[in-house]
């Protein structure tokens, strides 16, 4: 039986120990964060005030201890294009080099690698730094007419050594006198067997990335310019805003919570799920961290096969597995072009219908997301409380949650519902059943749990704001206790083995009288 986990989490503030790797290539050291075990050869201390206390020493065997660097945040973004960049891999294993492509208006710049997670607090630990780099203003972005794809052809500015970088989610902070930006990178775990695998959904980050004026949602006139949007987006460009994608806004609280809990973890991106069909073999669980909307056939097949061999699955955001994508090569490598025609004319119609990039639930080969997630995307935007309907579930053990408990602002802006009118797992248990009103139509958002014959269990939060309830996201009081306790119970059970066998679903769908269909679409006559 899985113990109630929340009390143990409150009392545990130990720094995370992660496995070290082999000696880094000689370029610049992985510096020691004050008070920790070093991970590389001698290095000069970085010049910036954020790292004045960083020291370095020789590599030592054993775990690499990292601690929070309180100066990891961007404090001076600067004007547009002051400095920006992108990496030519979304993930690398420790020891693999990755090219960093940077454009800046300044004469010099520097870069610091921060591993993001839990170090007695949520934030970043400094792992590596390089200063004194010559700045170059790179050529303007190119625009491919037929697909409205924005891409750059910037040369490699710097090769990053990753041999001493522990696996995890990273932000590379670019600093120049004219401004600062982030570049995200995942250092992929060398193996996933026996671990809970955390997945950064970079295909969804890229789908919403409007750098250069285009995304899969908008053209140069903004979000209303759907007709002129991109139908293919490239990873060969920076992310807009501060450059961090959705790592800081959506993924980091869950990563920090999992690290704080101390379960065995592995780190990948959804591109890794696409490229490596064996990446989940032997894993205990796979967890998509937040909004994870854009899936290729290979991604979906990898997770479905894993579930059917006993690997637990969690979808911690809503609207998962909704858009069907293809991935293609660019000049910088494989799977760096993301194709999604949505409802426009995909050239594969009638040629390869199974790979047409409409929504997964739509023709020509409909495969609703509910077959995997258990829930069905319905509408946005909403802002509503999460309402507990099944407090007897093992997921609420130790949280003090009672029937009808309302946790404000945890449902939104997109939500899912268990819909008996679409393919849905037979043994499914609705955990929260939260009234919402979307586009004037009343409905519900549901979180749910189901099990399969392999013994695996599948959890879906039903809301993109679920992680807002974590203490690592700043939640307090009852909300932090309940949501943090739920996630702790889930991850501990996942780490122990097939959680569906240990905690079989208690079907309760019949008593909820769920609407069979989409009430919002029905109200609009669709």
From TrEMBL:
The keyword Membrane does not apply. Residues 32-62 are annotated as: Disordered. Residues 34-49 have a biased composition (Low complexity). Residues 111-471 form the N,N-dimethylformamidase beta subunit-like C-terminal domain. InterPro entries: DMFA2_C. Keywords: Signal. Pfam families: DMFA2_C. It comes from the Bacteria. Residues 1-20 form the signal peptide. The keyword NAD does not apply. This is N,N-dimethylformamidase beta subunit-like C-terminal domain-containing protein. The lineage of its organism: Bacteria, Bacillati, Actinomycetota, Actinomycetes, Micrococcales.
